[in-house]
Design goal:
single chain, 933 residues, alpha/beta, Rossmann fold, 31 helices, 28 strands, 41% helix, hydrolase
């Protein structure tokens, strides 16, 4: 027997609702009052289980409750809904509550067919949430059924985690280390990208000849490209970017494919690179004039604005007057001087480096090997004695190579801080030995290594400065991350801090650990009240740490200023639990390398960020400029002072960087988001919150449910609440709740040790599903009753309140494809007087009934009699209730068409039909208080 989507069936002694993706033989079922976690598949074909049709049972007039029962049941039912009927289908099932500003890209995407969007909000605002929210919405609408995220490999695990935890999307990571294993799970001839509906894929993997055509053939209809600026095409941007761009260009050629590009730096002063990203959204953007200012280009700007959203913190902090708290930031530079023995070693190493890169008659590739070995040695020496000693004893990472291109690539990845490397972010010491093991040069390096060993400890003034600063940070209640360049440095720093910081847990995370091991170690460290994390740049991207850490110390200066943002962005972002974030930068005042990097790159980067409000990557010439400057350091006598800011090539570099910042400033002003008005977002958001419940509804329900269960809750001065999980005589489900959320709050503020109970939190969902399920299955013992009788002076005649649950079939059509989804909506209706001549109340008066205070009582026999008659009267209202369902279906269709805006009728069309009258969840009778005499 076939069952329609949304119909009720009975099997295994329980009532269920038939969900989409069911077939005649296999039913996907959700318990009538259960949660998504209880969804079950049942085989109903020959030899399968006995499944029969069922009808929604009316409430029992004998199982009546208190005056708060109606509100408690309404809130439980609203908070248990996951397939919401509003214009945003996805908001009922998210594991995160989007901020109002994060709905802007969603509205922009829904008004396109297909969605083509460039999300370029600043670091820490939540671009991942914005992009994934669009995907989740289109999945829940049935408009897409597969998804791929293309990203750098080191971000893959973060995407997998975010999709699973916040959006209920179980994706697999397709990376060089996992692709072969995933292929083994495929059928013969089946592609990995066809086998798995949801994938997070390394862009560099699928741009290769081995995977490119396979991916293009089986690519899904929705693609997110993270760090899209790394795929932009432009003059001087290299072959790797060209390959990436060609792949994205081929994906974008499919006119039905949804494409969302994500980057915090879309422009960065390179007009041609910016235009290349725009062409992926719309080929017509290739013909846009270079200068879009002026009234004559107003229409072009308006067209582009429908595809581009770019906002800074100041644009969204008070969006729709809903506070989005970001921490206050305090930056400081702290200098130290080298111990005399360390300074002497530095000069001796500089002398060796000068000699090593000027060997007469040596071939070019050997010269470049020596060059990179010398730079690696100088950088390690500036980092720590341990890193210097390790480098002096190791063979150079480029040793043995003959191809100059390979030598340059390896050198850059080992010594500099490139934005991308074939091996990810490297933190191993580079090695300095390039000659034979028995050579005089090698013996000289080993002697220097012994001198470096002797500097560890009291002669390491940099470490002494760090120790003092970390002690002060911990004393101030902050939890710092100390970023180092090399593993040897990070491990030595962590070991030292463990010995001197009493009562403080210290852990190191470096490239020695796998990504999963890094997450585990950080999770273990976060359990301690006083904690310090020492890490290399393996943590500068991929893991957001704002919940557990609140300060950043740059122990080693990065040689790429973008790395500053990456490090600091782990903690300085939305969701930071501390009101203040501190950033400390250590540098050697008498260290020529540190002062050069500080003057030429770090301070300039921070000045631009402070002026513009966002960061601009250094021009592409940064590495070649470093090459020139470091050459001058190695060619300059130790007694001479170098003032790099006076060099012409530095001044030209500064000018180009300032021009890039000015172009970015103009771009942001020109392309400010104006395609979605705040009042549009406010209207849709209010409708969603009314239908599904918001943080206030969650608070009212949770506090009401806990009170009804006899749980004592203590409010705290900071706005949070505390309940003892050891309280006796409470139901098991309530006890489980308390164990998981001993301290909790309902606002957007984040605080360590306090559970934020938003509308979609699993604890709230489970409690709501439990309360609703008990009301339907065991009404006599339920905390929320389906019926009640209340006396109140606020009504002048008998008034009856009906709590209804609608189920709708949403049928979507696109071309020859048709699909159907299920939607639920809670509804209130109320009438005064008799059922044969009802006076229907408006929406405001109906909602007001929920808050009336009882002022009298009836004996149980009278209550049951009143309720019996009220339920009997409703048998004659089937036509009225069906008309109500049809009205709500029409309103729902109108809401869907409203949010689609200009895309309405293009590509996807909808029809909404109720399969029958609504379910009658509750009936509550309000009686006037009798007058004396």
């Amino acid at each position: 027997m076939a069952f329609d989507i949304g119909s009720m069936v009975r099997v295994r002694g329980r009532d269920w609702v038939v969900l989409p993706d069911s077939s005649a033989d296999f039913l996907l079922l959700k318990p009538l009052g259960g949660s998504d976690a209880e969804i079950t598949g049942v085989y109903a074909g020959d030899g399968g289980e006995d499944v029969t049709s069922a009808a929604f049972a009316p409430p029992s007039p004998a199982a009546f409750g208190t005056a708060s029962g109606a509100r408690r049941l309404l809130n439980a039912a609203r908070l248990a809904v996951r397939s919401g009927a509003g214009p945003f289908r996805s908001l009922g099932r998210l594991g995160v509550e989007p901020r109002p500003y994060q709905l802007v890209p969603l509205l922009m995407a829904l008004r396109q067919s297909p969605a083509r969007l460039l999300i370029a909000d600043d670091v820490g605002i939540g671009k991942t949430v914005e992009a994934a929210l669009i995907a989740r919405e289109l999945l829940d609408r049935g408009e897409i059924d597969r998804l791929t995220v293309l990203c750098p490999p080191h971000l893959a695990e973060q995407w997998v985690q975010e999709l699973r935890v916040k959006f209920g999307i179980d994706a697999v990571a397709v990376l060089p280390g996992t692709a072969r294993r995933l292929e083994k799970g495929c059928n013969p001839g089946q592609s990995v990208f066809d086998r798995y509906r949801f994938t997070v894929v390394s862009l560099d993997l699928v741009k290769s000849d081995r995977w490119r055509q396979d991916f293009l053939t089986n690519a899904p209809d929705f693609v997110i490209v993270d760090e899209a600026h790394a795929s932009a095409e432009g003059e001087g941007l290299g072959a790797k970017r060209h390959q990436r761009y060609r792949l994205l260009e081929d994906l974008a050629r499919d006119p039905e494919r949804h494409l969302v590009l994500v980057t915090a730096t879309p422009h960065s002063g390179k007009e041609d690179a910016f235009r290349s990203l725009l062409r992926l959204l719309n080929p017509d953007f290739a013909t846009l004039p270079l200068d879009l200012s002026g009234a004559q280009n107003a229409r072009a700007r308006e067209t582009l604005a429908r595809h581009l959203v770019q906002r800074g913190r100041k644009d969204i902090t008070d969006y729709l007057r809903e506070d989005t708290p970001f921490p206050t930031r305090r930056d400081a530079e702290l200098k130290y001087t080298l111990h005399p023995e360390y300074a002497t070693l530095f000069e001796d190493v500089l002398a060796y480096a000068r000699e090593s890169v000027h060997v007469p008659g040596e071939v070019q590739n050997r010269t470049r090997i020596r060059w990179w070995a010398a730079l690696g040695l100088l950088r390690a020496l500036a980092s720590s004695p341990q890193a210097a000693a390790a480098t002096l004893r190791e063979r150079a990472g480029t040793e043995g190579e003959t191809d100059e291109a390979v030598i340059e690539r390896l050198g850059r990845e080992l010594v500099l801080d490139p934005e991308e490397g074939e091996e990810g972010l490297l933190d191993v010491t580079p090695g300095a030995q390039v000659d034979g093991a028995e050579s005089d040069t090698t013996r000289r390096l080993l002697a220097l290594a012994e001198r470096a060993d002797a500097l560890a400890g009291s002669k390491d003034r940099k470490l002494a400065l760090l120790t003092t600063q970390v002690q002060d940070l911990v004393k101030a209640g902050l939890a710092p991350i100390v970023f180092c360049r090399f593993i040897a440095t990070a491990e030595a720093v962590a070991e030292h801090l463990k010995g001197v910081l009493k009562g403080v847990e210290v852990a190191a995370v470096t490239g020695r650990l796998t990504p999963d091991e890094r997450v585990t170690r950080i999770g273990e460290l976060a359990q301690f009240d006083r904690r310090v994390l020492v890490a290399t740049d393996c943590l500068s991207e991929g893991i957001n740490l704002q919940q557990a850490f609140s300060a950043v110390v740059h122990y080693d200066l990065p040689w790429n200023p973008t790395r500053l943002d990456q490090r600091e962005g782990r903690v300085d972002r939305y969701g930071q639990s501390s009101p203040e974030v501190r950033v400390l930068t250590l540098y050697g005042e008498d260290n020529r390398i540190d002062t050069l990097i500080l003057d030429v790159l770090v301070r300039k980067h921070r000045l631009i960020r402070a002026t513009l409000g966002t960061s601009i990557p250094a021009p592409e010439e940064a590495e070649s400029l470093l090459d020139v400057l470091l050459t001058r350091v190695l060619n300059t006598d130790r007694r001479e002072t170098i003032q790099p800011l006076l060099f012409e090539d530095v001044q030209a570099f500064d000018l180009k960087w300032r021009n890039a910042a000015e172009s970015e400033k103009k771009s942001r002003s020109r392309f400010a988001q104006n395609s979605i008005r705040p009042e549009e977002v406010a209207g849709e958001l209010a409708a969603v919150r009314e239908a599904l419940g918001d943080a206030d509804a969650a608070q009212h329900f949770v506090m009401d449910a806990l009170s009804g269960a006899g749980v004592s809750v203590t409010p705290r001065l900071d706005g949070s609440f505390e309940a003892d999980p050891a309280q006796a005589d409470v139901a098991p489900e309530v006890r489980d709740f308390l164990r998981g959320a001993r301290r909790f709050r309902f606002d957007a503020r984040s605080e360590r040790g306090v559970t934020p109970l938003a509308r979609n939190h699993p604890f709230v969902e489970q409690l709501a599903s439990t309360v609703l399920g008990q009301a339907l299955d065991t009404p006599d013992e339920a905390a929320a009753k389906r019926v009640g009788v209340i006396r109140t002076s606020r009504v002048s005649t008998q008034t009856t309140l009906l709590l209804l649950r609608h189920r709708f079939h949403l049928t979507g059509r696109k071309g020859n494809r048709t699909w159907q989804t299920l939607a639920e909506e809670l509804d209130l209706m109320a009438y005064a007087g008799r059922a044969d001549d009802p006076q229907w109340l408006d929406a405001e008066a109906t909602r007001a009934l929920l808050n009336l205070t009882p002022e009298g009582n009836l004996d149980p026999v009278q209550k049951e009699d009143r309720l019996t008659r009220a339920l009997s009267d409703l048998h004659g209202m089937d036509g009225v209730l069906m008309a109500r369902a049809q009205d709500r279906a029409a309103a729902l269709l109108d809401a869907h068409e409203r949010v689609r805006g200009a895309a309405r009728g293009q590509g996807v069309t909808y029809a909404v039909e109720p399969p029958g009258p609504p379910d009658l969840l509750g009936v509550y009778v309000f009686l006037p208080v009798p007058r004396l005499g």
